[in-house]
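Journal club prep — side note

Before the paper discussion, L.F. wants everyone to see what a predicted structure for a comparable chain looks like in token form. Sequence:
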Amino acid sequence: MNKVKYLLLLIFGLAFISEGQVLQHKPSDFRADVNYRRNSNVDGNNIRATIFNSGYSGDPSNRPDYIDYEWPKNTNRIYIALVEIFLGGEVVGNTGEKIYLVEIPTGRTDPVTGNSWNIEPVPGFVNPQQSEIARSDNPNSWPTGVQGGWRDKRSDPNDPGWVGSWNGFFGKNIFNADQEFYYVTSDDLYKRQPYTPDTTDPSRGGLGLLMDVRTLAWSQVLINDVLFFIHDIKNDGTKTIEKTSFCLFVADWVGGDAPDDYPYVDLQTATTFLTDADRIGTEAFGANPVGVASLKYIETPGNQVNGIDDDGDSDQYPDLVAMITDSDNRIPHFTAEDFQARFIRPGDKIVLIEPNTYNRIIATYPANGGTVTSLGKEYYLPPEGITVSEDTLANGLDEDFDGLIDEKETLHLYHINEITQTTNPVRYINYLNFNPGDTVKRGFAVAGLNAEWNYFNVAPMIDESRDDGFDNDNDWDSFLDDNGLDGVRGNGDEGEGDGKPSSGAGTEFPGEPGIDKTDVSETDLIGITSALQIPDGTLNFNTAPDKGMWDLLMTPGRINLVRQVGEFQTYVSSGYFPILPGQRQRMAVSIAISGGGNTKDADIESVIKKQRQATTAYAADYQFAQAPLQVTLTAVAGDGQVTLYWDDEAEKSFDRYINKIGGNGHDFEGYRIYRATDAAFQDAKVITDAYGVKTLLRPIAQFDLKDGITGLHPIDINGVKFDLGNDTGLRHVYVDRDVVNGQRYFYAVTAYDFGYEPARIPPTETPIQVNVYNDGTITHSKNVAIVRPTASAAGYLPPEVDYFEHAEGGATGSVNINVIDPLRIKDGHEYEITFKDTILKIENRDVAKTSSFSLKDVTEGVYLLSDDPRTEFEDELPVIDGFQLSFNNVQDISINNLKTGWNDDGIYQFNFEPVLYLTVKGIQKPSDYKIIIGEPGSAFSKDTTLFGKHFPSKPVNFKVINVTENKEIEFVFSERDGNDGRLSIDPVSGRADAIYFFETDKSGKSRFTWQFVLNLKGQRNPEAGDTANIFLNKPFLSYDVYRFRMKSSAVSQEKARDELDRIRVVPNPYIAAETWEPRNTYTSGRGPREIHFINLPAKCTIRIFNVSGALVKTIEHESIFENGTEIWDVMSDEKFEISYGIYVYHIDAPGIGQKTGTFAIIK
């Protein structure tokens, strides 16, 4: 952290000046509109539930298209029916009387007009053409440019509306969770009470509250059974709500059968536990015992005005405490004496609190008694003195004149630290330590209205606020966090790179990390103040009066926890606290579910561990290790096989959280492939932890980087460790041949990282997202594919390469074209492959090597790959237009010793290499050659002079042929053995003639290329009729051009006619059920049934008759050529399930023929 800079500035008098309180608030025009109601299924990890964009989640109406809290997802194993947030306030009504408003997200209508009285969504935060809530993993759900983008970001001068960008918790396009949902609500439709919260808009109802809601899910194994809901509530009106309270309501449904539920609340850990008395659930649970669900209230509203360290975190910052002069007296810890009644008399110090600023005025008890005012309330102080004490009920007042509001012995003297499981007193600002006449600003430990916002003056983490523009905990880092108001570096927006924290308070922008909106530790959490359980159905929200709901649910101090088996509703609230115009308060909950333990206590302990990890994520400002990006998976069904292929998007991942805590943010490590026959992937979840609980999925294949990171990761999850792989190298195509035709399979390809051992974080995988709805509809994420292997249609002709030619060049490597996806082959399309090369200096030699290649669709005139460097055998190329290229390249130009030589092994052998004559260096031309020996005068050498040495043209007994170019070439003859024009070597002296090849290069310029020199390995010189064949190993170079044409799949009617006898009905007989039938996830009935007709022609009519000759079912089969199967659901044309017995089928394929047969259905 960059704290030293600030300490030095302070020491030398350059005090850090806060940006101050939130600027004068101007209400927005955000208003609710029921036409923008949306819902989505959160499915980013193992929990699935329907969320609604008005502040609730679950299934409030038992609609088949809504999902209760289900775990594991797609199993129909239910734990929670409904979770809602209530917002309440005590205000002064339009006629001057005190009134109460309690606002809820569903279940209320105006009895006169029928209009909604609920919290409802604000337009501008969804795509109106989509049915979903805006979610980070679906850009189509985001507001569009036609709407002006995100409504709360339209004031961004650099990028109005952030069109096409995600509106993340930490800023533009920052994805701090693997899945995030975001919406905004308003309470303005609630016009039941005579109260106007906004003087600028008399038509506005409610309390004037806007609520931003985010749902977060991580797939990291430590928290992949946890969901987070963050409710960020803003007073958008013009009036202060002196007493505010928020409440979370949960209706459990543990095991899918409520009567035996056993919910309870642990006040010490601020957690609601939802258990099942007998651990027996509905049919969906089968023999599996019901687990445990829990809700932990990880973030409650804060009280930044009461003068008390409500959450007890001041002592976690000893450096800040030490900067306060006389800290033991100015910000002491509570003692038991502080909660005793005390007698005050004339002349004693008393503290009065201004109602709007919450400044403390240090005064004295009037000499003759009298009336004083504190927080707008008058108190009579008699001349003889008075005994004062703080009222045990929270009322938002200071009744003992010590400047503290609602101090409470149980909360502040015996404050429970959940992490350390210890009880300690908290600190407070000792206003009685100041002198009469002093004024102390809210949250300050020094007197004076002009006191500056710095760490010498501000009470450390006492009355901290996320609206004050001050980095209360001093954790902002100038190196990492100086990103500007939009939270993203590089945009040049306000505050970026200015060397000081830029708060988003008072704006619609997140601000920089580590201050106010983005720093959860800067809330002085008041915690849970009320918890009760009441029998289900006790409250009718539509008719219950607000005052009754306020007294019952929202008032602090109401604890009524029955601890009984039965159907109970649980309400947990946090209040009171004031919320000024423009200020925000928050209520957040983490929902975790666990199961698989041998006992209920084991499941409870497991869910507690998961909630501890949730607390870790919360303490890190809702940040945790992120999974790599999802790949896009394609599955291709074949006969007895499934081919999978995917992209490399995950390899570009960057984990901001890991990077910030000191790890390597570029932590992608590999891929895992999972296969299951059920949407919940229960088939694959077979790896258990030390307690026998199924924890991890077993992959059918795994590919990881060749980087030395192998074996088991050192950090375990309850005794089980993640396998990082064994340096196989990455692949993006996999063929699964361990499949059964007709069986439906779910495949997922996940990317994983290598974790971060110093922070005890194991590897993280991308989530597997599948949604199965009650009507059988299935949706899934892009890294999931659903496929059924099957035989192809009768007469099937697979796609193929129609023609292939090495049009230009002489490369000796091979080009391979592998059809991966027949459906994407473009019939008749021609393609061209070209190469680029480069010259490298290796051992003082210029060596030509392949540098890249390009693939062009000549038919469409577009490049599909450009200058791609992957030209080696081990390089894997992407699947394009249904095929995949691969190259078997050679490293460089070299002699092919197996094919090169004379026609007679007795002839003196030769050396063949680039020309090297003083500074003349020949180029490595990629050609094959012949040197044909004849009689003298068969050819003439070239006349030239090199560095003063003249090589005259002369008749010679040989000629040089460039076989690749099929032409005779020029050459220079350096005759060193005699002068007769014959190619030879002196067997005594070893003096040998040399031939220097002189050719044109690829640019048309004449250059020296190769030299040919005899050596003494052999018995004789060449003679007329001899030929030297020179073959080179040649990499792909710029000379090379390949062309090919693709032919798509087809059907031969003649072949189909020959294959009619292969048509089968499977199974035959059908006995009660078949393994390939989808798993039944319904609460009753046997689920879907299937009979398969296989090896069918691509187009035909199937008629099914009973033995009496009555037509039962007619099926028109028309499929792609690759699929010769028709699935029948065993239902008649009249939609009745057919009875057991013998049936006759008749298949008519026009132009091909007919086929009849029988099958049986046996009970």
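L.F.'s comment for the group: Confidence is low (pLDDT under 50) at residues 1-22, 1081-1086. Keep this in mind when we get to the figures.
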